[in-house]
Amino acid sequence: MQTEIIKIIHENGHFSIAKTEEVVQQEFFIPNLNKLAQQVIANCEPCILANRKSGKREGFLNPIPKYDTPLHTYHVDFIGPLESINKNYQHILTKTFGNPKRIITDQGSAFTSKAFNDYCVEEEIQHRQIATGVPWDNGQVEIIHSTLIPVLTKLSLNDPTKCYRHVDRLQIILNSTVSRSTKWTPFELLTGVQMRNKEDLKIRDLLMQELEKQYLDQRESMRKDLKRNILKIQAENKKTYNKKRKKAPEYQVGDLVVVQRTQFGGGLKLRPKFFGPYQITEVKPRDRYTVEKVGDHAGPNVTATFADLMKYFSH
Q: Which PANTHER family does the entry link to (predicted)?
């Protein structure tokens, strides 16, 4: 009876815990009112779907393992939409370098298609898709895009359909630029030598002969330095990131949860902040989960998500 009274009063306006207690106390005396009010509100479906999660954001930074083998992992994404051009370009990396061990992508339709999945299975490539709404999972390629897109835009202001003409030049610049994380250029890490540009063409072949003798030892040394530098940056980033985070709940298969809406278009600001309920069907590493829709409501039927974008449907 006490719980029902609190529930009726709360549902009149879906008040906060403090406001619900205040209204109840105007008419009733209920022992342990605060505890009961918390329990009622924690299980109120409209509040679960509409209220934002409070407190520190959940989930610590879990850097992707790094390997000292070149071309082990490709971080892949599309940029666009770009201006239409009259050329049908297709750049196939595997034609020159063979297959990577792993590909990391978002959940764009090009990467979730059956054809792409079949290709990865046939070529024995591990395909890892990042959770929706968690772009930092594929941060390596997102960082490149944040540089590439504005530069391409500036270079092709007069004719955006000719942006492809600048891609080769930009690629050379990016591949010959020292990375903050690795302390080396991508070209040096892959080949063991510095990129030869127009100014370098005057250098005698004698230098190349000496470099050839040092090549194998130098390349191995660089790759070890690469791994140390990346691990150092990861440790620093993880420490800074985790200061503002708390441990994520350990959800289990079968738990009922709601999933945060990650896109708000026009007219959606007053829509519920979460979709649900969903049932967890798979527990993945690093606080990732696969969930499946339960019942008839808005939201995708099946999706991958992250603990910080979820909360329990009921307690």
A: PROTEIN CBG26694 (PTHR37984), PROTEIN NYNRIN-LIKE (PTHR37984:SF5)
Residue 29 banded pLDDT, cuts 50, 70, 90: confident
The letter for the amino acid at 242 is N
Amino acid 269 reads K
Confirm if 220 and 174 have CB atoms less than 8 A apart: no
Q: CB within 8 A of 85, min separation 6: which ones?
A: 161, 162, 163, 164
pLDDT of residue 49: 80
CA dist 120 and 100 (Å) reads 10
The string of DSSP letters for 135-186 reads GGGGHHHHHHHHHHHHHHHHHTSS-GGGGGGGHHHHHHHHHTSPPTTTSS-H
Q: Which amino acid is at 143?
A: I
Q: What is the CA radius of gyration of the chain?
A: 26
pLDDT value at residue 82: 66
Q: Could you report the per-residue pLDDT of 147-199, keeping only the tens digit for each?
A: 777 777 777 778 877 777 777 777 777 777 777 677 888 888 888 888 876 64
pTM of the model: 0.49
∠ CA 82-83-87, nearest 5°, is 100
Residue 251's nearest CA partner among 214, 276, 273 is 276
